[in-house]
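Tutorial, part two.
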Amino acid sequence: MSEPERADPEHQRPGRQTAAGLRALSERPIFICLLLLLTTLAVYWPVGEDKFISYDDPLYITSNPHVQQGLTPASIRWAFSTGYAANWHPLSWLSHMLDVELFGPGPAGPHLVNLLLHTANTILLFLALRNLTSAHWRSAFAAALFALHPLHVESVAWVSERKDVLSTLFAFLTLWAYGRYAQKKSGGERGEPDANVPVRATIRRRGVPDYFLALLFFALSLMSKPMPVTLPFVLLLLDYWPLGRMPALLSPAAKPRSVKFQLSGIAPLVGEKIPFLALSVISCVITFWAQQKGEAVATLADYSLGTRIDNAFISYARYLGKMFWPADLAVLYPYPERWPMVEVILAIALVAGLSLAAIRFGQKWPFVFAGWFWFLGMLVPVIGLVQVGIQSLADRYTYVPSVGIFIVLAWGAGAIVTRWRRAWFIIWPTALLVLGACAIRTAIQLQYWQNTERLFQHTIAITRGNWVTYSVLGSYLEMKGHLAEAADNDRKALQINPDSANLWNNLGCVLIKQQQATAAMKCFQNALRLEPALPDTHINLGLAFEQLGKNEDATRQYREALRLAPTNTLARNDLANVLFAQGQVDEAIAQYRQTLRTDPKYAHALNNLAWALASQGQYPEAIAGYEQALRLEPDNIMFHRNFANVLARAGHLEAAAEQLTEVLRLAPDDADAHYALGCVLEQLGRRAEAIAQLKEALRLKPDDPEAKQQLEALGAAAR
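Running the prediction step on this input gives:
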């Protein structure tokens, strides 16, 4: 019997050739990179239409004068020298400044930059894992989970979290460069270091550029956000797996009596990490200084050590829960007064049990050990033992730590397929189903980040006792002019936290705008009872007294604010306004001048000083003041209107008409501006134009007696 004929590869059926070609293409890194790129952009693309959020975004971007300047020598110096926002992350500040240079002040550009950074991080993670392990599809699955997991929406959709995605970019570059260094140092073979070449000799010959490149990327990562201070620990985990640089620990024959031998093998690896650890220590010192300076670090009186430990274990458990069931994700999770002891015990048991399991199975499945302790270690800086802020945990904190769990899942699935080949038919559909579910859930979560109101209403709906959320929503609604709703949210915040001076102050500000000065005054007095040394609250109480016609009381409040903060330009400007209203013009002018010596670009103080000077007939200096104010705020309608008034009084009618024309360009339906322009045109002898302006004023304000009277004086019909 003849041997069966074998298929000639060159004469295979076209279908088989196509399938083989597609399989070969799918196993090329460029294919996975392109797939990750397109998928991430497709899911996250709506983020480009989101608005800025009224929580941290004003602090970091929209109301930050240094950022709004763009990249200037002064702003760059500020970025490297400041501890503003209770952090030192100069590269993040520079990236926000670059956004302003490239895209202007709007939110679309910064959001798209965040998305591009997240996409780059995804691709870098895939390439780094593939380079470290040579596992193509497992690396792709871990990277896809990173790209699409809903917990990462906060880091991408929140422009203030630029520090998160930017720091991760450099952290993943650190992993990539370190992997290249370690592989070259081991002769290119993972897990098989050259036993004949001493470690110190090897480092001089192989991988030195990659080592210092990794060190540089790590420094840049810390300069973007200090959270990766535990990355040297992750590098040591990578030495264990997948780099296999600890053969004594990986060997099944390793026993307790060989501990000395094991430590002798680990010591050189720890020595390699000393420069990285030195950078971490420096970053920790600078960060602690910045957070202490910004009064962001909670004391033991705020949160006891026991409370912090309880919350740390609960947070680990909650992070795991949200990774496997990402529902009810919020921008802020309030810190509870006390966790139930049963929950604390269960959380401790969970973390301890999983840690022991990772150690127990670390030799058989080293990726479990490396992935689990990656997750635990990367969360240490933000787990709450050093409590910064008021949150008990935050979705954004999982951005890099989650990779450890993704590694366990991806390589765990691969291990199952390796042992039971038929499991392939279950693993692949399950993996696609998980990624699809993540993509859908991420798309839903992105919708909440469209604007402040939607985000914080969602957070209120899924959290309890969240007074900060009510406060932020109240401030946002106040800014939008929805004063009744703003006051309602401020009152709800006070019901939860009645001992907050800031909340009483916020409610008082809304009541002032509602012309409820008496109620506002009581709010400010409550705030000062809780914290007497708040300059802004003294200023606001002064405004309440002004609204009630009690100028002497207002003056005392402004002077007290200046005693507490002598350089407070708002207090000095308001004091000058009261003095001017009381007829003390000379002293008011002196106070305005002092305000401008402190802040020469305080446009409203320039406007007020110019008005006061004009009241004394000092028109040249008043005109110069208005010109300077309008250079600072060229679209300020009030400035143009006041300038026109002063110009008309000084006899510069043509210039006054130009200013009023500018008012109408900015506000075409301003009846008072039409009336004022009509009066100026009449004085210039431009009767027809004056009549047209007065008629327009009367059309917009039909019951305006002055417009009717002026038209009658010009011999024109009112209608």
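DSSP finds 37 helices and no strands in the chain. In part three we will examine how such features are distributed along the chain.
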